[in-house]
Amino acid sequence: MRVSRLMLATLRDTPADAEIASHQLLARGGFIRRVSSGIYAYMPLMWRVLSKVINIVQKEMDEAGALQTLLPQLHPAELWEKSGRWKGYTAGEGIMFHLKDRQNRELGLGPTHEEVATSIIGEQIRSYKQLPINIYQIQTKFRDEIRPRFGLMRSREFIMKDAYSFHASEYDLQDTYYKMDKAYTNIFISCGIKTVKVDADSGSIGGAASQEFMVTADTGEDLILKSPDGNYAANIEKAISKASPPLTLKKQETIEVSTIDQKSIETLCKEQDIDSSQIVKVIVMVAILEEGKDQPLLISIRGDQEVNEVKLFNEITNELNCKILKLSFIKEEQLINQGLAPFPFGFIGPDFSDSALKNAKTWQNKFLRIIDLTAADLQNFVCGANIENKHRFHVNWSINKYPSKTIDIRKAKAGDLCIHDESQVLEECRGIEVGHIFQLGRKYSTSLKASFTNEEGIEESFWMGCYGIGISRLAQAAVEQNHDEKGIIWPISIAPFEVMISIANIQDPIQAALGEKIYKQLIPQGIEALIDDRNERAGVKFKDADLIGIPWRIVVGRDAPSGKIELIERAKAFNEVLDAKAAIKKLIEEISNQKTF
Ligand SMILES: Nc1ncnc2c1ncn2[C@@H]1O[C@H](COP(=O)(O)OP(=O)(O)O)[C@@H](O)[C@H]1O
Ligand SMILES: [Mg+2]
User: Is the peptide bond before 491 cis (omega within 30 degrees of 0)?
Assistant: First the structure.
């Protein structure tokens, strides 16, 4: 390919909306063009990168036994109503673009394909003998993200590889899950990016086990906790840890203490000279339900700890066994709306009476009480006295007569000890989620009535797994991980071209001829070469070459009359003057060594 024919349009200035390096560099290098918020065109150089990622993914999926398909992007609402996801995905903060056809029928643009895949396989597969089946596709997904940002990282239209597997048993599902895990690891290695596999929350998709593959980068949207030895890593949403031990209060009789205006843990500790780990903090929230009366929550946790809202959300969903739209803190105006008397916020204890909820208009009249393990472990603590401006000191759990659920809802944090090995102190790092694998279980097959006949001749719902890779996000994440102040440094396996031949002065016939000769020798050898034949100053060409990040560069310049060129590796900024022939030989060797697939 010739740069003169490439429609290359590099920018000197960074587009105003590009906040992170990879977005800035892809935009400046002319790889992507913004069409609208979260909507991008992949320009020719970018399409070459994406195609390479796609090839790597296809090879590994095929090897793992998955079958490539292409499913529709227009999804009838009825399918999503059957799985119970239509409302949540289209109303309020739902991310599904949806529309009506000329017959006024509702359709959604596919953000993910569990419903479509399950219904198709459910219709086609009848017997355990036909299982397992794993289908995948590579296609554009649509998600009306609340905050599209960072270019291809969180866009509203993006390329995803998604796979759905169907099994006769949970054991068989686990087998495929591990195969896909292995395939994912291979894919990321082949793409030349470093990833960490982390335990993940299953989110709105639901299911038993789930893991994410994260590209570690300071600008990542996800927070990861990991042990220095690499044996434990989890998304903060899911992470568990051992909390630091609390300071103990000296045992004394229970007393009520006047704590005027000491509403916050911080002021209470300061005024009373106690440590926050000696306090049971109580948080009052309400779970807003899709249907039925909303459920008030009373959450107790150690004063020095924070609640992990994802864990809390999951536990409450399980407990109530119904769809929760969101959790929100109870505020004074909500109490007024419910026709309730004010709560003594800041002075509430774990035994706060249900009578506070009596006659609530649209709320249940009992709290769902949750006690975090850190709070439950305290035996002599400080907590609110359920009266304005008063706390109790030296109390224990005998104060709470209400049925309560004791579980882990604590946010693990850096500095906590690893649950599996207490010599490991957890560290924090940021990551970009490029892949996600789930053991879905039978949630979708049950709701969509997708079943097969088992060995005993009985109808049974499929066991299912699903597996995603953000193809376009991965390509940008590779840039986030591989760049310097001058531009991109593509890993060789996904670089748009492997070598750039820069002719310093195209008007010089000797330079032009040598450049062409090298180009013509490289192409038949299978080397993907780009030749910069533009009539531009050498400085401009070198700047562009650095920016677009082709891994190798041959500069044909002043030494052309003696048949010599400069060979430069972009990642190492190291240049060597070589005879053209020797350079070609070395280049071919180096490239074949570097390519891991
Ligand atoms: N808005 C987006 N823009 C680009 N890639 C995305 C976007 N949302 C998800 N992806 C990619 O698709 C993969 C599978 O998506 P999924 O796990 O369903 O998304 P999420 O974790 O956002 O619910 C993610 O691992 C990510 O790489
Ligand atoms: Mg995900």
Answer: no
pLDDT (0 to 100) of residue 251: 86
Query: What's the confidence (pLDDT) of residue 597?
Result: 54
**What is the per-residue pLDDT across 502-537, written as a single tens digit (0 to 9) for each?**
999 999 999 999 999 999 999 999 999 999 999 999
DSSP 86-132: HHHHHSTT----EEE-TT--EEEE-S--HHHHHHHHHHH--BGGG--
Q: Position 101: which residue type?
A: D
Residue 265 to residues 258, 259, 261, 391, 409, Cα–Cα distance (Å): 15, 11, 11, 11, 19
Domains of the chain: 3-73+110-240+428-479 (3.30.930.10), 255-407 (3.90.960.10), 497-594 (3.40.50.800)
For ligand 1, atom 9: residue with the closest CA: 470
* 3-class secondary structure, 25: helix
Residue 595 is predicted with a pLDDT of: 79
Distance CA(43)–CA(585), nearest Å, equals 32
> Ligand 1 in contact with 468 (CB < 6 A)?
yes
* Residue 110 and residue 116 in contact, taking contact as beta carbons nearer than 8 Å: yes
The verdict on the CB of residue 184 being under 6 Å from ligand 1 is no
Q: Confirm whether pTM is higher than 0.85.
A: yes
Q: Which residue type is seen at 214?
A: M
Q: Where are the beta strands (DSSP E) in 486-551?
A: 487-488, 499-503, 529-532
Residues of the chain short of pLDDT 50, as ranges, are none
Q: Mutate which of 115, 157, 158, 191 to test ligand 1's pocket (most atoms within 8 Å of Cβ)? A: 158
Q: State the amino acid at position 280 in one-letter form.
A: V
Residue 318 has a pLDDT of 86
What is each CA distance from 183 to 5, 167, 195, 207, in whole angstroms? 37, 19, 13, 21
Cα-Cα-Cα-Cα dihedral sign, residues 257, 263, 265, 266: negative
Determine contact, residues 546/575, Cβ cutoff 8 Å: no
**Helices 21-28 and 471-481 meet at what angle, rounded to 10?**
100
Give 423: exposed, middle or buried? Use CB within 10 Å, 0-12, 13-18, 19+.
Answer: exposed
